[in-house]
Write a structure and sequence with these properties.
Length: 470
């Protein structure tokens, strides 16, 4: 650890450039994950495809991204970080250029797959590197900066794409991505250093293959709540995927050099961190997806206005991320975490109790409360989890947290969709007016996630301000 910290010793400018370039590249890639939802109608008309087909630009991206995350620790241990970072940038840039000139949807989808491979590798690696180059006593501030990528970029993605689409075509969004990533690539030659210790070993391809069960699991989760799904086939896919994942877990515990060190899960404080990161991410992603729908279906806002209504929450989240890092370093991570979980829980509770009486301003304030709470939870709890592990396992720990967070986020969105559809349809069957039925559907969603976040609040009481293991 001392050797890796020493790379920047006495040269704060070099470290700032390193962190800034890493942040710019990862932030841009993170925005690409959530930015296309606003452009769906435009892309459907351009390529002449249906809504379920165009959604694969996001669903397929997520599936590929998740399958790359468990491989990230092996890459960090076997490939010099500078070379790995540059390879990821090139991969993402090539994918973006393919999308820009795609003559049809399959070619665009291929470009998105290339982008997703890069993002899936970089997300866990980015967090691992930031933790590794930062002394434990200063990790709060550093992880606050990391939160800008992990939380804020997800929230602002649809907003940025909405603004770009207002003034240019959908290709304009990818032109911006290509310019930024190319600039980051050029600067990386001067300012990115090899900060991770290498421990070369062979990649276990059986583990890689069995980890593909993640794709099947996430695919089935994303079918929940949809109509016209062949559930016989889906249950078969789910069964095969769960068997593959069970073997993946078994193998990681029984081979000499596992691809993903799952023994990190034997640390209870780390397990709590994994769950709390998931609960925080669920609150954030459900807010960014469900609230715009509520604005359009209940408050009757236009798609553009509903997207812009997310701006205050995203700005508030972005401003709070660095602040919560400083507070965590000063007052302790657990105190900050408890404040955040309380904010999230109160937000969902008010939504459930007063949803029928809230206007746009009230909804925006509650979105700010929930997203602001996320800033107090996501990175502090990830830092607590990392501090519970030896330095040698941080890369594996961040990969596990990132993967589980993605699965729980997808599950949260699926559950919200199912509840919204089921309750609304049930109320319509009873003879309720469509507006009343829709309101009841959303109220059921708010109640469900109020209960989820109460559980998260209880778990946050159990977590400890951990001391570093040897």
């Amino acid at each position: 650890m001392e050797e890796r910290l020493g790379i920047f010793k006495g040269d704060k400018k070099l470290r700032s450039w390193f962190v800034g370039i890493l942040l710019a590249g990862t932030f841009t890639m993170s925005i690409s994950q959530s930015s296309l939802s606003t452009a769906y109608p435009t892309l459907m008309r351009y390529f002449g495809v249906t809504a379920p087909t165009i959604q694969w630009l996001t669903t397929g991206f997520m599936l590929v991204m998740c399958i790359m995350m468990p491989i990230s620790p092996w890459l960090l241990s076997n490939v010099p970080f500078k070379r790995l970072f540059q390879a990821v940038l090139v991969l993402f840039d090539v994918g973006t250029i393919v999308i820009l000139f795609a003559p049809n949807f399959p070619i665009m989808m291929f470009g998105r797959v290339l982008e997703a491979i890069g993002v899936g590798i970089l997300f866990p690696a980015y967090q691992s590197v930031m933790l590794t180059i930062t002394p434990e006593e200063s990790r709060g501030v550093t992880m606050g900066i990391v939160g800008l990528v992990m939380g804020s970029a997800l929230a602002v993605g649809p907003i940025i794409s909405g603004i770009v689409l207002k003034f240019t075509t959908w290709q304009g969004l990818f032109v911006i991505f290509a310019i930024i990533i190319t600039l980051v690539f050029l600067l990386s030659f001067k300012f990115i250093a090899n900060v991770m210790s290498l421990k070369p070993d062979r990649l276990d391809f059986i583990s890689v293959f069995s980890s593909l069960g993640l794709i099947g699991l996430l695919f089935v989760i994303n079918q929940l709540g949809k109509t016209g799904v062949n559930w016989t086939n889906q249950f078969g896919l789910l069964a095969v995927s769960l068997v593959m994942l069970a073997y993946f877990v078994f193998r990681q515990f029984h081979i000499k050099t596992p691809m993903l060190e799952l023994r990190v899960l034997k640390t209870f404080n780390y397990d709590l961190a994994v769950l709390l990161t998931g609960f925080s991410y669920i609150a954030l992603i459900v807010t960014t997806i469900i609230f715009p729908l509520y604005y359009q279906e209940v408050l009757k806002l236009s798609p553009f206005a509903s997207g812009m209504s997310l701006v205050p929450g995203a700005v508030f989240l972005s401003l709070l991320n660095p602040v919560t890092g400083k507070l965590a370093d000063r007052f302790g991570f657990k105190r900050v975490l408890l404040i955040g979980m309380s904010m999230i829980t109160i937000g969902w509770g008010i939504l459930f109790v007063f949803s029928s009486e809230l206007n746009l301003i009230g909804m925006v304030i509650l979105a700010m409360l929930i997203e602001g709470g996320n800033a107090f939870v996501m990175m502090p709890v990830m830092t607590l989890g990392a501090n519970s592990l030896p330095d040698s396992l941080i890369a594996h720990g961040t990969a596990v947290i990132t993967t589980v967070r993605q699965i729980l986020g997808s599950l949260g969105v699926a559950v919200a969709t199912i509840i919204l559809t089921a309750i609304t349809q049930s109320e319509l069957t009873k003879g309720s007016h469509v507006e009343v039925a829709t309101q009841m559907g959303y109220r059921a969603v708010f109640f469900t996630f109020f209960l989820v976040e109460i559980l998260g609040l209880l778990l946050s009481i159990l977590i400890k301000n951990s001391e570093k293991k040897g």
